[in-house]
Design brief:
α2 (17-30) packs parallel to α9 (216-233). The chain is α/β, with parallel strands linked by helices. It has a 7-stranded mixed beta sheet with strand order 3-2-1-4-5-7-6, sandwiched between helices. It contains 9 helices and 7 strands, in the order ααβαβαββαβααβααβ.
């Protein structure tokens, strides 16, 4: 992503409604497989500024890797260790050395030419029965200047992501959309951006993401909406959402 975006992520990841809602949705995906037992060895691949590493610590020991020196510098500001500067396309870890790998808004990146190859790398370093946890952008119709700012290559549909995860050697356990309740509003905003011409600004103008600080009360209200959605998501599948989530296991 653009360098300026790393600071925004560092400052907002902990409290911003979207990140908080996504974490709750991801935790809902993990329910039922995190039932005790030995601590997991977890790799957050493409760890960014590192807040998610602090979350996964509740499940065991967490390592992080990212190709960006700026991102890793922010991780260190959080006091994180077990960090490696590396490209997720060539993970510098031994085969069958981790129990879990997460890719949170990583696979869609424009520098990843082959996302199946990246997933195969994850499969290689996972122990038999280990799992991969994925979040990413959904629905190509939502593509905007935000995607340019975060260097997105594509947005996924369920059928597309399932096919690529399975081609890499995983069995999908859960797959669905996230941010479904607010999806109509997101779609309307993106379509208005295109109609007004803001989405077609000159290439010389640096693109900026939609990520920004939100006042306390609206932030709390939006967090509550996504928390309610995460609760509903345990029982029903949504037909749309601005993001897609996937939990899959390495085939034994």
């Amino acid at each position: 992503m653009e360098k300026a975006e790393y600071r925004k992520h560092f400052e907002l990841e902990e409290r911003h409604w979207w990140f908080r809602g996504r974490r709750r949705a991801l935790r809902a995906y993990l329910r039922g497989i995190m039932t005790g037992g030995r601590p997991l060895l977890w790799l957050d691949a493409g760890c960014g500024t590192g807040f998610n590493m602090t979350v996964w610590k509740e499940y065991g020991r967490v390592h992080g890797c990212d190709r960006s020196a700026e991102a890793l510098a922010f991780c260190r500001q959080r006091g994180l260790t077990d960090l490696v500067r590396a490209d997720v396309q060539h993970l510098p870890y031994r085969a069958e050395s981790f129990d879990a790998v997460s890719f949170l808004d990583v696979l869609y990146h424009r520098d990843i030419g082959d996302d199946v190859s990246v997933l195969r790398e994850a499969c290689r370093i996972l122990r038999p029965g280990g799992f991969v946890l994925i979040s990413d952008s959904a629905f190509p119709i939502l593509k905007s200047r935000h995607d340019e700012a975060v260097h997105a290559r594509e947005r996924y549909r369920k059928k597309t992501l399932r096919g690529r995860v399975e081609a890499a050697g995983f069995a999908v356990e859960r797959l669905g959309y996230f941010n479904a309740i607010l999806f109509p509003a997101v779609l309307a905003v993106r379509l208005l951006e295109r109609r007004s011409g803001r989405a077609g600004e000159k290439a010389a103008t640096p693109a900026r993401s939609n990520l920004k600080a939100v006042p306390r009360l609206p932030n709390a209200a939006l967090t509550a909406i996504l928390s309610f959605e995460a609760f509903l998501g345990r029982r029903i599948g949504f037909p749309w959402g601005s993001s897609i989530l996937c939990l899959a296991r390495k085939k034994e």
